[in-house]
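new request in #modeling-help
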Amino acid sequence: MITRAVRHTGPVPGAASDRDDGHDRAGLKVHELSWSIKGTVIIDGIVLHAPHGKITGLLGPNGSGKTTLLRAVARLARADRGAVHLDGSDLARLRRRDLARRLAVVEQHAGTDLDVSVLDVVLLGRTPYRSALQSDSEQDRRLAFEALAQVNMAEFASRRWNTLSGGEKQRVHLARALTQRPALLVLDEPTNHLDIAHALSLLALVQRAGLTTFAALHDLNLAAMYCDHLVVLREGRVVAGGAPHDVLTPELLMDVFDVRADVGRHPETGRPLLTFHPPGVVVPS
Amino acid sequence: MTVGSPDAVLDPAAKPVGTSSIGSVASDAPAGRHVVRTVGIIVAAVALLVGSVLVAVTIGQADISVREVWTVVSDRLGLSFLQVDVIGLGGQPPSPIRADVIWEMRFPRALGAVVVGAGLAVVGAIMQTLTRNPMADPYLLGISSGASLGAVLVIVAGLGSGLFGVSAGAFAGALIAFVLVLTIGQRSGTLTPVRMILAGVAIGQLCGAVTSFVILWVADPHATQDAQFWLSGSLAASRWSSMRIAAVVLVVALLLWLWNARALNAFTFGDDAAASLGVDVNRIRWTLLIACALLTGVLVAVSGAIGFVGLLLPHAVRFLVGPDHRLVLPLSTVLGGVFLLWVDTVARTAFEPRELPVGVVTAIIGVPAFIWILRKRQVRA
């Protein structure tokens, strides 16, 4: 009986140190990550922790190193030094194929000239699980259809990719990423070029997926609404990190983004709600 | 027992399994059916290829019947017991001279066209994927011209006139031209298709000019025919022996590419997408592109620089069966062979007894197709 109960609840009650340790190791941890090109430092000694099962937003003005950091985390660029751990294991030690089973990437707007179907695209997510000549199995197809249903695109399976809208394409990319069965989702400004309804629905789908997520986001209000944790970059360094209401202060917005803003409360979600002021207009105090 | 069942059949409401899901039939089909479809299409294409060879060898100045061809083939392959006229083609068994025309001239030429067409088509398919350039083709990118120059330099320098030496020179020339085009065609690490084509045209023109110069001034002042061969290609010199290296390299390269067909699919959305799907992008790209240069080199060594096959065939195949490399690669190979076989048959017979250079015919078909692809695909500048 006891054994069964333990299996169900995880760590034995009382073994607090074990649990804390396990909790601490879970999620994405970045240690002292640096990357430079031709002598210019792009990111410099990045340290951060994206908690397990939560959405961590990466904020920062253009050129602050967001995309570079994401690329270094996903091993699309090789960092000069530093380490990236996911749920306790060092990502640099994994074979690329094994990495692709644990970490999936959705880019800003990855397109193609080829006449592929939506299902073809989603099945690409099974690439790291199949050997060279194996054809797609029933299981692959089941996972692909499940992922399409998860992003509300089930009836689009046989549609041609080039007939989709921008928002639909991003949802298909998300389905492809989910089909990789990853522990970590890395999203590089996934809502760029999307209208507000598609942006909101995409992030809601990401939230519903419940995976550890590390997402660069441009829109600060979207970040405030959907992220559990925020990290702010400026000139390649982390300048703030924490819960949205701790990070998104008028002082930080002035300091990092060079905008005057009021921070209120969203009436429905209770999340921070930013109101920006046009430059040059003085607010009467 | 009631007799009501026939009525039930006629009742429209009883008609089961609605046809409303027609749109999703293809994607709901079980995975096994895709394998059957793939194998079926390839078998049909191979049958078309074999049939084309048997018919194409009958066409030419000496009128030869399918029956004669069949007799010669079964004779030479040691299958004389098959010579019973089962399909009732009639006709006479061929004289020894005609048998020689069939086996020593028509067949090597037909198989030369098949090997060269197959190789150029599959090289085009690989290049289009790995450079993300729908206009990629070994000829348009200057690689065939580089191979011609390499081959001519080896011959002129006396490094070897044997097929192996010429093939090696052609491979070296192809590889150097390819590296130059990729270097000039990229800007801060990304290849832009139009820039790449311009680089290819420039390198191709340069190599062509140097080839002409070397042949006409250094080697043999009367060798305009040689220049014609190297610059626009011909299959007139095909012999059984000259096809050996090309055939072996074609088979080995094709196996290598097929082995990576799934990884090639992962390039659909570009290099980063492929890498994040677990593909070792640099290793795959360089291995497969070097194989492209190698195959282009050995093909040019036997046929000169024939253009547009590598551009046309992969597009036609994708149009027919979609972009999955597991089907596009084998089908481009087989249909590339069929295509060049018929083009060469037209080239050698249309204006008998004069022969058109086969590259002239592929260009006449290829240039309109090039313009069509350019307009349709809205190639990224």
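bot summary: The first strand of chain B starts at residue 186 and ends at 187.
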